[in-house]
## 1
Amino acid sequence: MEIENVSAFTADMKNSTTTSVGGLVGKLNDGFLNVGNVTLATADGNDLGSTNPKVPANDTDQVEGHGGLIGHLVKGVLRLHGETNLENQKITTAYNHVGQIVGFNENGLIYALGNGNGLDADGKGWSLTRYSGTDRGGSDIGNWGAVIRLGGNLSEGEDGVFTFDEVAHTVTINSSVENETKADINGANQFAAYALAFEFSMTDTGKTEALNLKSKVDRDQDQTVNLTGDVKLTNTGIIGIGKDNVEKGKAHQFKGTLDGGNYTITLDIGAAYGKNSSGDDYAAGQLYAKRSDQRDTHYSLALIPFARDITISNLTIDGNVICKIPKTVNQEVKDIKYPAFVAGAIGLASGKTKFNHVTVNTKSSVTEEATDAKKLLAWQGGFLARCEGSTLTFTDCTWGNTASLEDKRNTDNHRIGGLAAEVMGGCTVTVSNTTLSGSITSASQSNANVGGLIAVSRGEDSNSKAKPSTIEISELSVNGETVTTSSAQQPTAVCWATSGRIRMLSLLRMPE
């Protein structure tokens, strides 16, 4: 279906929490929707993100799917081009199943033919104008992922990330995966195709005619991914390998090996974009993490959000990871079991995790949407946010001098670590010939758990059962690493809080 040159108003339809509401389509069970040049607005001050316009925050967790264009995308494709004008499409609470563009995306592909910042000189591409009210809030897609944006590093066509058949109205992801387990990747198009195949394989896409895969990925099997060139994901909307949330089932865990071949992956997670938008604007394409009553969205932001039994080797990770905390959604303030995860390499790891010859130069940050934001806990690690596995190994690794971790909120209970934010009990951590050179900044006024190496070694498993951990360190170089708190700059500590044993097998070297 194609929608072109349309202007429409959305009235207050007195919808319930079980109703899907969108500016164009309420619920798309399957199919292809090609949207160009639309101007949408809500009538009479109606807030499209809620069933209660007067107090929208009261039920934003409960709705089935409310979105500026589509409320609930079950599967299929949304393709955007031309001007998408939502300047008067009021959505103030775009979290969970509410999004400025799509509310609840189960397994649909959402992409645009441009960067969203404006049309090309010839009038082609994509321009996105968001709701202009100062009360705007939240993500473009409520629960996971971002709009994939072509132009620059990604393209459409035989050599691109996917191919569009304008006669059949179908999209084929140009994935190339041998035996559903092995991929050689050169550049952003091939990386994006693999990442999308990883997300959409085994999710009922075989029953849709709108979205196809050239080859599938079997997530239940060990993967072997080898880079044969650099991968630059700047301005693409590609987050990483796997969904950044868990909903209706288990996480999309990557397991196996990722060999970088001494190449670089440049991340651009949570970047702002859109017409007249900047990184200082609220709700301008950033990802808003939320964890509340199992309605968890955008909460693991990393190259690999969830991993199990993984080895990453010969890789440099660069770029940015930006996490926003919503202002209006109720969240558990003190429950340390359910934080958001922000890291360069892995958000949440289980099983056995190994880093060999890996350098992380990413700049990560956590900020809140407003000073009255609900206080969600967020763990940040240079390499890894939380380890729930049995072993964690760093060999010949570097947390680079351009890398940084920053939590700009003044909330307590920050956990920020140069290599890892948190290691759960029963884990053996081995660090050898590794260098720490990045910077950590915490604006917390109290109880900031910050470690140059690891912020917290919990000494208990995820079920709160006591299990001490062992940390063995040899040839660790702290070379220019800094830790800054809200009150003063302090010297780096190896581990801020630990339950278990730290064994130093050689002296800690601190070059001047």
Note: Helices lie at 188-200.
## 2
Amino acid sequence: MTVLQEKEMVLCAGFVSKHLERDAFLPKQRDILLENALKDLSANPDVLAIYLAGSLVKGNDDNYSDIDLHTVVNSKRKADFLKGKRNRANNWVNVTFHEDYNTSSPYVVTLYNTFVKVDSWYHASEEIVPSIWLKEVEVIYAPFNVMSHVIKESAKLVYKPSADDVEHWRVLSMKHTEPL
């Protein structure tokens, strides 16, 4: 490898990329995939809301960031959504593979041939309650307004670790610093 070729490579999360041209198009591919998913999901009358979480919402995304897609569905239809989650994800763009496929699990992880990964979660409406995890989400579809109160109440929440929580994490962190 020449010095020039080495300079053209980019570090991302500690890895060197040799695919700069391909990787430069990943955000556009991610946008197309998200648009396809939104069109598909919002066409279903049992979809009550769709929101995004993760780095795309927090603003610390990069070319390699995945899509954390959450879909709130009619409670009576959630089992059907879980059974069909893999097939639904297949509708958005050409799929390379699905990780950890369990029909009763509320999520499916899908990697597409565009090198974009989507973590798709399905929630029944009554499962959506105020939480510190809902402080940084972006609602992208909500015709029934099921998310606004939950988002408003979530914004008020503050994580306060207990003494047991602190001790638990202290012990875990010390295990990783001990010599082998």
Note: The chain is about 35% helix and 25% strand.
## 3
Amino acid sequence: MTALSSYSTGTVSVGAGGTTVTGVGTIWNDGSAKPGDILQIGNFQSVISDVTDGTHLVIPPWGGGAQAGVAYKIWQVSPQRFAGAEAMATVNKLVAAFNTTGFFVFVSSIAIVPDPSLGDDGQYALQPTTGKMWVKTGGAWVYLGIFKAFQLTGAWSGATAYEVGDVVTLSGSSYVCVLDHTNHTPPNTTYWQLLASKGDTGATGAVPYGTPAAWVTGHSYVAGPPADLVTHVNGSLYQCLASHTSGTFPADLAAGKWLLIVHGATNGTSVTSLAIGTGSKAFVTQIDLFYKVGARIRATSAANPSNWMEGVVTAYSQDASGATLTINIDKTNGSGTFADWNFNIVGQPGAVSYPIGSIIDSAYAEYTASTSITAIIPTDDTVPQSDEGAEILAASITPKSTTNKLRVRFSGECAPTNADNIIAALFLNSETAARAARYCTQPAGFGNLIMVEHEFVPGATTTQTVHVRVGAAVGPIRFNGNASGRLFGGVNRTTLVIEEIVA
């Protein structure tokens, strides 16, 4: 005879009189335990009333005293384990659902009304294709209406097949279809029901503005409606905000009697007498110009457009007396003092980019005299000083960048009276020690070309001045000729060139 099946994996704990059994190492939710099985701990047994999860069981109050972490056994004798038991339980639930009051009877799309033999009193019938609904009352189906959401289909069209619940618009009104059809124009009440009709045309409102006219003094202006509109200052358009008799336009504007609604031309003028130059310049001009702080403006003389100055607007203020435009001038052309300025918005000058090695600026000086020079520069191993020799040339340049190089080149033809050393030295700004020097030894009376070159990075954008001092070991010496005097009628020149080179 086959023994009863059982399950005893893990251990269990339960309190005295407890209804929850807790397992450790158990797997009860895989069918190992079912409601109706018998739980045995020691000599005490209890029916399992429910399986909560893999480690918890529900039982009637436990009468075997408190148990903690003990062995157990589940005898698998539940009726649910016999064939057909679970299926019957499901059938019972289904039958209960069928017997629920109000359960729908579905009506075929080809039927007009529900089958009278179906359903009980209180039950509903529904035709999904149309949304029609009935309820059975006193043994008969009673029609309740159509319960179907509206379908918004847009403007009515004679080519569209409409169904119940479709909504269309026509001539400003909206209609819902109450009977399936094609090409029956609203408001045919057999097929359409009015949802919302177009309203009557409203009364014409007050005209908000009057006709624009040029502003004049001594005129009575009204805030309306209609509000007076005037043009003033370069064609700008203003709306009257407060009824008043006009005085001066800047004063009325400052008092809040006018509102600027359309800007006219942005370009103003000024008769302020100002000299062309850099720095801050204040121009008395028109009110309500479209100049903002940060805009770049060029002020040009009307009589001669080649005379101009430009810069960035730092202030534009106006009051009852007029307006003032302040420009920080950083770029000019021409010279002189003018009082006929025209203003124009201009672009910001772009940065100029040059390839490395490009010469972007230069300075030049020349010495044409042929005077005897007796000053001495020692021919020894000391740096020439600024109190030695005689200065014959100087040139200045203002670098555009702190990183650019300056290249200095000096050349001159010189002849000594006696056989002698001829020395030339380059000095920078007010420095006392030479930056570069060179000498040549020459027989008496004969000329020779002496050249000195030097490159350096000034590291600043302030003006740099190079001085050339010359002398002999004994003397005297003479440039631009020979020991007797000048040669070539003065076109034989001693020169100094400074070049700024992009680094």
Note: The mean pLDDT is 89.
